[in-house]
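Predict the structure of Oxidoreductase.
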Amino acid sequence: MRTNADPLAALGALPGVADSVESVRKAVDRVYGHRVMRRRSNEITSEAALRGARASAALAGADWALEEVRRRTDFGSGDEPRTVGAALRLTAESGQLLGVWRQSPLRVLARLHLVAASGAAPEDRVGRPRRAGEPVDEPQVELDLPDAAEVAGRLDGLAGLLVAGSAAPSLVTAAVVHGELLALRPFGSHNGLVARAAERIVLIGGGLDPKAVCPAEVGHAELGPQAYAEALGAYSTGSPDGLAAWIAHCGRAAELGARESAAVCEALQRGAA
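Done. Here is the predicted structure for Oxidoreductase.
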């Protein structure tokens, strides 16, 4: 294999990455092998979506209890409710975009931002990458902000890699997509929510989690904002060690998401007994 022709696959050879990939695969297999999944997988998928959205919103500054998210119906008033509503909409939308993602990742990213930011951001800045001089509202990410020209170039490069396809494990591709979007912050707002939704799309569409029952967002939230920021900082260095650290962090998050759904399966099994 010519690694220069498949840079994402080359990342799979970084120290510790293969171990992370294998560990995530085992965790996901445990969920898919649970007896409850054979009969009630739709329920597990729905619950994973809810928990994933809640966790993504928490990382964006709206840390609500799961039951509050479950019972609430109005998300239109106030910053935190809007953030939670945006996370819920993104989770619902991401499952409808798998086919488009394979052909045009940039169209999907624009759609995700439109879904997240509509009604909460200036209309002329929704659903498109930011232009030179436009501000970014993303207080949870403190990295230096690339200028609009760099953003455009790196987005095009990322999209080219994704459309060309890769032999890289889904975890590696998902981690790179997630990390690039957080590092670039291509939109004026809601970049974290969009990045985590894009990670979700890759994990589902890449075959690691085709039924969407292992929400990595839950793991990211469980590991905590500080660990998230530190791992992202490592990614942003572009060094082999930094990239490996970020991929390992994303792997641990996916494992924890799988563990969450395994616990849901166990709870449903006890309830049915």
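The chain has a mean pLDDT of 95.
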